[in-house]
From TrEMBL, chain A:
Taxonomy of the source species: Bacteria, Pseudomonadati, Bacteroidota, Cytophagia, Cytophagales
Organism: Rufibacter immobilis
Key words, A-Z: Methyltransferase, Transferase
GO molecular function (one): S-adenosylmethionine-dependent methyltransferase activity
Name of the protein in question: Protein-glutamate O-methyltransferase CheR
Pfam family, one: CheR
Automatic annotation (TrEMBL), chain B:
GO terms for MF: phosphorelay response regulator activity; protein-glutamate methylesterase activity
Catalytic activity entry: [protein]-L-glutamate 5-O-methyl ester + H2O = L-glutamyl-[protein] + methanol + H(+)
Taxonomic lineage: Bacteria, Pseudomonadati, Bacteroidota, Cytophagia, Cytophagales
Swiss-Prot/TrEMBL keywords: Hydrolase
Keyword Hydrolase: yes
GO annotation, biological process: chemotaxis
Pfam families: CheB_methylest
Record keyword Hydrolase present: yes
Protein name: protein-glutamate methylesterase
EC number: 3.1.1.61
A GO term from the CC aspect: cytoplasm
Length: 285, 191
């Protein structure tokens, strides 16, 4: 294995992204390049693709290969109760605000295989809020959504998830929410009934509802500033005054043109509230 | 003693390396202009705030966590955030990537070293410190292949020799130095 691996260079990548946008209307041209390069190099290795010309040929002539590439170049890594301190803060500081609402809508933008959605549903259940909540999980990758819908998660991760759950302030035991079949944990119907999963592309799709809480975590790190701004506008349109926006641990609104529309709810956990007076007036914390 | 000019210095480490960083940073010349980045393995939930909290009062250099889309600035010591891979873009800004761990590690030293090697070539100095796994060996080789200079901490004096030894075994390490030799080497770069 001393032969140097095949690696895509900048110009080839630009050409490929443009072709993908033109042929399939999936536009990755506003994504950070270095992560894309790593993902594509990984596909070259996995699929033993001999040249960039061959990659280009396969992408442009074979829609199945294109679909596979899209799945591969987006990073789907996630876990339940990722950053337990974040979920703890949701529970302590955001749930009391949500509890004022007769009906609660939550949007997980870029939900991947759904671990984040199940995590939040469990905590809402324990706060007696789940029965009047709908959680919408969206992603551009239909494959991960299929996985999310199934409610099945590999048992290998349950130990970590249980620890995360307890650190998030879970009040019972994570095992109350699933049954194990072979090496899979099936999460309960009660949780799944409150979830809707559908394809939505943050690059090109519009706002589709109004939400009390939007979570978009570990998605924006892959977008350039312009695309981040587009997405923040989409979120601003989809929140009422007093609506809440939560980002990932290393993501921020502060560089965006939308920042003036929000105030911090919790700076450390990257949680903002849309300003303006409306349903929540007078309930500011 | 050094003729070459570096534009970026990256220092990777795992088990035992925080102690080395705490020793190194205050010992660096305050006139250091070349940006320095530490990529250290640590707990996923740990913040890099603690390094700057401890060390900022002891150095005139600015110490901060590397943030996504941040432009790389001179006179700054960056620390890679926990739980993300850190990459460098063509416009010399940082970007973050939460993809799979590499060598059970995120941040992975290999990932950052390889990304830097591609952009800085012979203007890059890579240093690999103590650690108990093989992360960084590949990245060091990549830096050397791209024309950069590589220094491994001497396994004989490293708290855990595995990591620098793995890099030395690739045959792509130019110098093997103790911590104090690394510090003098770095300060000699400042004229
Ligand atoms: C790293 S996962 C984040 C999962 C979860 N939010 C978390 O923090 O653990 C990123 C997800 O964003 C999705 N994504 C990337 N680009 C997208 C886009 N333009 N529109 C919608 N989802 C996108 C990917 O498919 C992937 O599933």
């Amino acid at each position: 294995m001393q032969e140097p691996e095949l690696r895509i260079v900048d110009e080839e990548l630009e050409k490929l992204l443009k072709e993908m946008a033109r042929l399939y209307r999936y536009d990755f041209t506003a994504y950070s390049r270095e992560s894309l390069k790593r993902r594509i190099n990984r596909v070259l290795l996995l699929k033993k693709i001999p040249s960039i010309a061959e990659l280009h040929y396969q992408v442009t002539t074979d829609p199945d290969f294109f679909a596979y590439l899209v799945e591969q170049i987006t990073v789907n890594v996630t876990e339940m109760f990722r950053n337990p301190a974040f979920f703890h803060t949701l529970r302590q500081e955001v749930f009391p605000i949500l509890a004022q609402e007769p009906f609660i809508r939550i949007w997980h933008a870029g939900c991947s295989t759904g671990e984040e959605v199940y995590s939040l549903a469990i905590l809402l259940q324990e706060a007696n809020l789940l029965n009047r909540t709908l959680l919408y999980g969206t992603d551009l990758n239909p494959h991960v959504l299929q996985q999310a819908k199934s409610g099945l998660f590999h048992v290998a991760n349950l130990k970590t998830y249980s620890e995360n759950y307890l650190q998030s302030g879970g009040t019972s035991s994570l095992s109350d929410y699933y049954t194990v079949r072979y090496n899979q944990a099936l999460f309960s119907d009660e949780l799944r009934q409150r979830m809707v999963f559908s394809v939505h592309n943050l690059v090109s799709d519009q706002s589709f509802n109004e939400f009390n809480l939007i979570l978009c975590r570990n998605v924006l790190i892959y977008f350039n500033r312009d695309l981040q701004d587009r997405v923040f506008n989409l979120f601003t349109e989809s929140l009422p005054a007093g609506g809440i926006l939560a980002l990932g641990a290393k993501e921020t609104l502060v560089h965006s043109t939308s920042k003036d529309a929000y105030t911090y709810l919790n700076r450390e956990q990257k949680i903002w509230m849309k300003s303006g007076s409306a349903s929540y007036a007078g309930k500011k914390i | 003693m050094q003729e070459r000019k570096f534009e970026f210095i990256v220092i990777g480490g795992s088990a035992g390396s925080i102690g080395v960083a705490i020793q190194m940073i205050p010992a660096l010349s305050g006139r250091f202009q070349v940006p320095i980045l530490f990529v250290l393995h640590r707990n996923a939930s740990s913040s890099s705030g603690f390094l700057s909290d401890i060390l900022q009062p002891r150095t005139p250099l600015r110490i901060k966590e590397a943030e996504e889309k941040e432009k790389i600035c001179p006179g700054t010591v960056y620390v890679a955030p926990a739980d993300y891979h850190l990459l460098v873009e063509t416009d010399f800004t940082f970007s973050l990537d939460a993809s799979e761990k590499v060598h059970y590690s995120r941040p992975s030293i290999d990932v950052t070293f390889e990304s830097l090697a591609a952009h800085y070539g012979e203007k890059l100095l890579g240093i690999l410190l103590t650690g108990a796994n093989a992360d960084g060996a590949r990245g060091m080789a990549e830096i050397a292949r791209a024309g950069g200079l590589t220094i491994a901490q001497n396994p004989a004096t490293a708290e855990v020799p595995t990591m620098p030894q793995a890099a030395i075994n690739t045959g792509m390490v130019h110098h093997v130095f103790s911590t104090s030799e690394i510090i003098s080497f770095l300060n000699d770069l400042v004229d």
